[in-house]
Design goal:
heterodimer, A: mainly alpha, 4 helices, elongated, B: mainly alpha, Arc Repressor Mutant, subunit A, 2 domains, 0% strand
Amino acid sequence: MNHICDHLGEALDSPKCIAIKNHLNECGSCQKYFSSVENTVKFYKLYDVKLPSEAHNRLMDFLGLKEE
Amino acid sequence: MNENELIESARKGDRKALSDIVKKYEQTIYNFAFKICRDKDKAEHTMQETFLSMIKSLDQFSGKSKLSTWLYTIVSNHCLMMARSAKGKYYTSFDDDEAVINEKEISDWKITPEHLLENNELKELLDKAIQKLPPDYRIVFMLRDVEGLSTEETGKITELSVPAVKSRLHRARAFLRNELNKSLSYV
């Protein structure tokens, strides 16, 4: 809800946002749609890659910061 | 030493302080670069260039913004430059609203985010979907939604107005959602 209201430039307790919130509470299609948008964001948030130790070593070497 | 003290020491030539700054942010920068480039070699190259730029211009860092914001700016600019120089790359056009809004197909999804880690097919799907998104939209989505920066910070980094950030974010979310929906929906 925060994102929707923010996008509209409305406060959370504004009549427009309250109307949207009420609609979301009752509309199954909208609930599914927003849940899939939320999951889209979560998928990309969870998809992390770890810096390999070789890449760390190459970075320090590249920057001239390799420890003697 | 706190971050400002580290920066101050690094400016004075303290190699240990500089090394500590790099170590503090290397994972974040590598991860963010990968999320934009979707390629480990390009992510590593971007990370190296980002820290090199940081070292070269550390004297110009005013301290008015966070160091992380400054680093995100360097990565974003570098990724945009690489994308612009990549010839023949096709990105989805957002001139046609039909390409973005597809609310006719609404259903539950077969897979939830908890399944991501053990599912390489899903990771490929995520990579393919985001690679269709123009890099400037991709950067806004990554900064705002994935890295959790504010709309204002995202606008500052990308040199976009707040309404432009909101508009790109909305389109990027809708596009990615529709792309994933094609494979993950029960319909």
